[in-house]
Amino acid sequence: MKTLKKILYIVLIVIAVFLAVCSILSVLRNTESRFLKILDFPRIQFFVASFICLLILVAAIKKWKWYDYLLSAGLLAGLIINGSYLIHYTQLVPVSVPAAINIKASDAQMSLLITNVKMTNRQAQPLIDLIELKDPDLILAMEVDEWWDNELQVFKKDYPYSQHTINELTYGMVLYSKLPLKKIEVDYLNNENVPSFESSITLPNGKNIRFHSIHPVPPTRFKNLPDNANQQETALIKLGTEITGRTSPTIVAGDLNDVVWSHVDKLTNTKNLLYDVRVGRGFFNSFNAENLLMRWPLDHIFVTEEFRLKKLERLTKIGSDHFPIYVELVL
Question: Are 187 and 203 in contact (CB under 8 A)?
């Protein structure tokens, strides 16, 4: 029995050290080190695991040694560090984008559904059914290859405006719109195989807005897929430069391959221009739909100050590793 307790104690110590070190190192989230950047993602998991580990330590240790105090301090530091990021996605802080109230018939409204379909996913019908149910004004689909592009052609009649930039490298992108697209540009901000869209959209009341859709590469190296090995990831900063000179209300949406944790200004190098619709409302974790224990928010929607939020939803599974995200906005 003593041997078993000793083994369990050692295992607990190893887990606690791992959690404390990873949580403390995660403050270096803006580094170009891919290992350190990845520590920014599982903050929810680090927080929960650290809390449980600290409870077990407090309950199990009868005679405290100096290293027990040190380990507990490390876990507590991890809780504070991760909690300082996670708190922005709880109702303990004010919302960043105000709720739409007292909506008038003359107010410009629009709805948007964004989805990373997962290129290898060959179940199109769940997404098609979901789009027909929600009936959004705009559909942004990512990881679209030729097969997915053909499947989504069913929306051509109801969505007369569209842009299709397809590739077989998981970075194809398609935008369908019921609203007129006056102008649309395809940009390659930081990788020749990773497109993003910049479009001008006319709302029903005649007002124009700017819509940026983006899908930067994640902080991971891939053998056969695009990445930014040996170079800085600057797609969001370049996008921020374009938005800084904006003259119209602006929306940014897509799979950012980044958790953000509400620090939009730091990622885009803007200041008080873009606001995260999640802040003050909830996590709405969009990834990983295939793993309940490893989920965090990767698909984001940011808006400028002219917008109000009417509805925000994480939708049901569609066979992808991402959940679709749906919003209704009022200008």
Answer: no
| Total tally of structural domains belonging to the chain | 2
Q: What is the pLDDT of residues 73-92, one digit of tens each?
A: 999 999 999 999 999 999 99
- Burial (Cβ within 10 Å: 0-12, 13-18, ≥19) of residue 61: middle
Sheet with 138-142, strands from edge to edge, namely 161-165, 173-177, 138-142, 109-116, 325-330, 308-314
In-domain check, residue 326: yes
The span from the CA of 171 to the CA of 116, in Å, is 10
Helices (H), 108-222: 125-134, 146-151
Segments forming the whole domain that contains residue 302: 109-330
290 in a domain, yes or no? Answer: yes
Could you identify the residue written with the tokens 């679209």?
Answer: 144
What's the rounded Cα separation, in Å, for the pair 17 and 19?
Answer: 6
Planar angle of CA 48, 39, 22, nearest 5 degrees:
65
62 lies in the same domain as 145 = no
Task: Quote the CA–CA distance of 237 and 173 in Å, as a whole number.
Answer: 20
Whether 235 and 156 share a structural domain: yes
**What pTM was computed for the model?**
0.91
Of 195, 180, 299, the C-alpha closest to 239 is: 195
Asked if the bond preceding 288 is cis, omega within 30° of 0, the reply is: yes
Q: What percent of the chain has pLDDT over 70?
A: 95
The 8-class DSSP code of residue 217 comes to P
Whether residue 96 lies inside any domain: the answer is no
d(CA 310, CA 277): 10
Where are the strands (E) in the chain, listed by range?
A: 109-116, 138-142, 161-165, 173-177, 181-187, 196-202, 208-213, 250-255, 275-276, 299-303, 308-314, 325-330
